[in-house]
Amino acid sequence: MTASSGARVDARGWGWRHAGRILPAVSELDLVVEPGERVLLLGASGAGKSTLLAGLAGVLGGDDEGDARGELLVDGRPPAEQRGRVGLVLQDPDSQVVLARVGDDVAFGCENIAVPRDETWRRVDDALDAVGLHLPRSWPTAQLSGGQKQRLALAGALAMRPGLVLLDEPTANLDPEGVVEVRDAVARVAERTGATLVVVEHRVSVWLPVVDRVVVLAAGGGVLADGAPEEVLDRQRGRLTEAGVWVPGVVPEPPVRRRASSRGPLLEAAGLAVGHRGPRGRAVASDIDLLVHDARTLAVTGPNGAGKSTLALTLAGLLAPVSGELRATAELAAGAGAVPVRWRSRELLTRVGTVFQDPEHQFLTPTVRRELAVGPEALGEPAAQVAERVDELLARLRLDHLAGANPFTLSGGEKRRLSVATVLASRPRLLVLDEPTFGQDARTWRELVALLAALVDEGRSVVAVTHDAEFVAALADEEVVLERPAVVGQAR
Amino acid sequence: MSVSVSANEAQPDRQDRPAASGSPKSQGSQGSQKSPRPSRRWRVVDIVVASVIGVACGVVFWAWGLAWEPLSNLLAFTPGLSGLLSGGWLFAGVLGGLIIRKPGAAVYTEVMAAVVSMLIGTQWGFSTLIWGVVEGLGAELVFAAFLYSSFRLHVALLAGAGAGVAVALLDTSFSSIAATALEFKVVYGISAVVSGVVLAGLLSWLAARGLARTGALSRFASGRSAEARV
Amino acid sequence: MSLLEAVETDRVVGRVNPVAKLLAALVVSVVLLLSIDWVSAGVALGLELLLLPWAGLSARQLLRRTAPLWIAAPMSVVVTVLYGRDDGAVLLQFWWITVTEGSVSLAFAIGLRILAVGIPGIVLLATTDPTDLADGLAQVLRLPSRFVLGGLAGLRLAGLFADDWRQLALARRARGVADARGPVAAARRLAGQAFALLVLSVRRGSKLATAMEAKGFGSDTERTWARPSTVGLRDAVMVVIGVLVAAAAVTAAVLAGTWEFVLA
To answer: How far off is chain B from C232, nearest CA to CA, in Å?
Structure first.
């Protein structure tokens, strides 16, 4: 692959305010990135990292979308005039796939910058090879895993032979395997092409081997710290940890526990096989035997595709088992019958609460306050009681200042807290969480672990499906490992 | 300078919370009083979101088409009343027009929706496409009459009515309704317009306003002027 | 949705330019829609059925894809028999339901027409890949590439709808609001779910638009095409077949004296 010369980035007093917002997202930024440098960009949420990357890629929009101040130049010219010189990879794997076949999707960028046909297909093959995606050109993009989709997005950017490669939290929504795949692909690319690299991530240890410079953006504007990785991380350790960055070497403190005594099992699974279409469908995982105990945390782990989410949804009474048995003991069922999937929706509310992987799937109402009230209202509780409950939860989860906001406008961490809060509103005995720490920064992680620990100490039970080894180490009392296709067993 | 994280949770980098948490945006709180005249050219985000809305509506159209058979038989004690159901196929254009606010948005979205419902499979085959174009034009003409500058409730209702008139003319001339007697055609026409106003006009306006409140439309004028205009 | 995916076929029809298929189906449909009479519809339907073996679909695929037609046609026949424009001898009278000879023959014509108009579109599009169609529309018909490709990208996002819908339904059950409590409550729930789907899709669409712009899409530079879309003899033949079917239908109806311009 022919090397493209790295691009140079110049920011002089640059600022951007999105239209419709009061405060600017970035202000007074002075930054220079030399060609070929590899920069890790850190900073608290709200410090303007994504805005900076969008500005460098030239996709912030025109005058009707915001106000720009100062200068932001790539190779001495505005980025919008140099399409194809800058490549951008974003966070959500599903929202970057443009076309239905792998080869077509990678060729898309080349077509847009008017590369001749033969040269395009040559570049497509080169790019797919550089990211390690060895698939035929006609492979359907819908059948790619998250890590593969992110590598596809990277290949699509690469095919344009950019001088500057920008990555905005590329591994946030990926499982550990996918994270390493993408990191290795980026490292390979940086080596082969000599392009300038700017990565925004909060998983610092993953990216340390790849970068040679760390820049920390300050929330109010400007650069907080800038220099060699070890140096910056050392000096700014405190601030960065505060800001939610996973600083290597800082081990999260395990929460202090005061265990309640367990009153026996809540759910029993025997020879359980789970799938999406109930008894008539195919099983994605089978032969599962487990017990969910009162006042304990059960972690369900395993590789991608092993059926963890499906198991979680089945345990939560949302999906019917394909075969085998799932029984709720009298302790949990409290008169509603032993088969969770046959419980009515309102019966489910007080027994099992489910927190979905994507909190947005759960939002029903236009304000946070009403969102919290949905559960209690469905149970028919009197208005005064509902209001009290809602206020209590708002305070406990630090959402009071957002009581009137629309749930979709919250930040990632706030949405996660809100989805947990809505589940708590109806006081269920058992909580089932699907990837609770997915894509969360260190701060939200700590809060969530502390919250769940407190809940289990109060006497509730938690089942968590997770990739996160640290989460399991901090919280889990028991672990079930799912392997493709059968389960191994339950370990205490 | 310390990193004040809690303050920044209120200004999240990635989330699009409209600044209506307190001060009214349209009253130039930071010199934003000068809102430049929105360009008439379609941006990429206009095209993609219009397509997505069209596709989503297309799926609803298809489902509505399935439900049409039993529902129209319910209303069959006066055959023209099946016109009341026709609004279910008209809201894509009005919704697209209200959100994108550019010339051609209503036609584009309605045609997209018609194509998708056709692809999934309807009994009306290709005529769905032709109907889509004319229905879209019905709404488009209303938006054009207001010079694409006003998108308030009454404009939405009128656009729905416009689409209703369009579909009434088409159906009473070319479709199986054309095979009925005159009095039924008149009933059909009136109920189609009513349906257009309620199902296509009112529902679309509510949906557009709801969407703006979720912050999903932050790149659109319709998302930013949620308080002022809509 | 599996119905949106093209059927792989070895037959010639798979290699015909999608634009030609589109034009052929369009010509037949538009012409047939100009009149409601059983001769034009019947002749067109007959010719289409004769051509079906070359469509590249197996019998099972064919039946599956044209299923809506086989449900819709009989129902429309019934409705027209009961409420159609009356003509000729009265066969049955009940309230305002009048069944006459005229309404029966009209019903017959409507039923045939539904089939004759529906089949070409469904069958021809079944073997068309959406990306190839987009290439054809932009390269052959010279429609603006921004709109064609933007539309295609939006269409692709629809593939995620089914998964989202399922998750949304499960979430509603988990939140305690999924108990059926009458049609009004069910309608409100469905509307809420549809709205949530709309929100998710619009956000995804906005993100996709940004990704496409970052790849240089939407600028004024003239783009190149990695997949050529060419027209040749095969495609001309396809269009000619469509025109011939339409012409045969019209001629037969005019000769039989049953052609009636709907607008007249």
So the answer is: 25
Per-residue pLDDT reduced to its tens digit, A133-176: 999 999 999 889 888 999 999 999 999 999 999 999 998 888 88
Question: How does residue A218 score in pLDDT terms, banded at 50, 70 and 90?
Answer: confident
Rg (CA), chain A: 24
Poorest-pLDDT segment among A124-133, A482-491, B48-57: A482-491
For residue B14, is it within any domain?
Answer: no
Q: Kindly list the partner chains of chain C, i.e. chains with 3 or more CB atom pairs below 8 Å.
A: A, B
Is A111 in contact with C178 (Cβ distance < 8 A)? no
Q: What is the DSSP string of A57-74?
A: HT-S--GGGEEEEEEEEE
Q: Which residues of B touch C196 (CB under 8 A)?
A: none
Cβ of A345 and C176 within 8 Å? yes
* CA A430 – CA A459 distance, rounded (Å): 10
Inspect the interface and report whether the beta carbons of A108 and C217 lie closer than 8 Å: yes
Chain A contact present for C131, CB below 8 A: yes
- Residue B13 maps to a domain: no
pLDDT at B73 (0 to 100): 65
Its ipTM equals 0.87
- How many CA atoms lie within 13 Å of A292's alpha carbon, on the beta-carbon side? 31
Considering the domain boundaries, does residue B214 fall inside one? yes
Three-state secondary-structure class, residue A40: strand
Distance CA C27, CA C37 (A): 18
Domain extent, residue B88, equals 43-224
Cis peptide before A485 (omega within 30 of 0): yes
Cβ contact B3–A218 (<8 Å): yes
User: Picking from A105-114, A307-316, B173-182, C33-42, which range would have the lowest pLDDT averaged per residue?
Assistant: B173-182
Joined tokens for residue A373: 């009230």
* pLDDT tens-digit readout, B59-82: 888 878 777 766 766 666 666 677
Chain B touched by A81 (CB under 8 Å) = no
- How many angstroms separate the CA atoms of B112 and C148, rounded? 11
Token pair, residue A300, equals 């369900």
Can you list the domains of chain A with their CATH numbers?
A: 9-243 (3.40.50.300), 265-491 (3.40.50.300)
Give the whole-angstrom CA distance, residue A96 versus residue A83.
17
Whether residue C160 lies within 8 A of chain A, CB to CB, comes out as yes
Mean pLDDT of A190-212: 90
- What lies within 8 Å, CB to CB, of A48 at 6+ separation is A16, A25, A26, A29, A217, A221, B13
Query: CA quadruple A110, A112, A117, A121: dihedral positive or negative?
Result: positive
B228's CB contacts (< 8 A; 6+ apart) are B24, B25, B26
Tokens of A448: 């969530």
- Is position B2 within any domain? no
Rounded to a whole number, what is the distance in angstroms from the first to the last CA of chain A? 51
Render B54-113 in DSSP notation, one character per residue: HHHHHHHHHHHHHHHHHHHHHGGGSGGGGGGGGGGGTHHHHHHHHHH-STTHHHHHHHHH
Contacts (Cβ under 8 Å, ≥6 apart) of C225: A111, A117, C135, C138, C139
Strands (E), chain B: none
Rounded to the nearest 5°, which phi and psi values hold at C94? -160, 110
Edge to edge, the sheet with strand A430-434 lists A352-355, A430-434, A461-465, A297-301, A478-482, A487-491
Residues of chain A by 3-state class (helix, strand, coil), percent to 5: 40, 25, 35
Instruction: State whether residue B219 sits within 8 Å of chain A by CB.
Output: yes
| Integer Cα distance of A371 and A373 in angstroms | 5
How many domains does chain B divide into? Answer: 1
Beta-strand relationship, C90-94 and A487-491: unpaired
Q: Which residues contact C77 (CB under 8 A, 6 or more apart)?
A: C107, C108, C110, C111
Averaged pLDDT score across all residues of chain A? 88
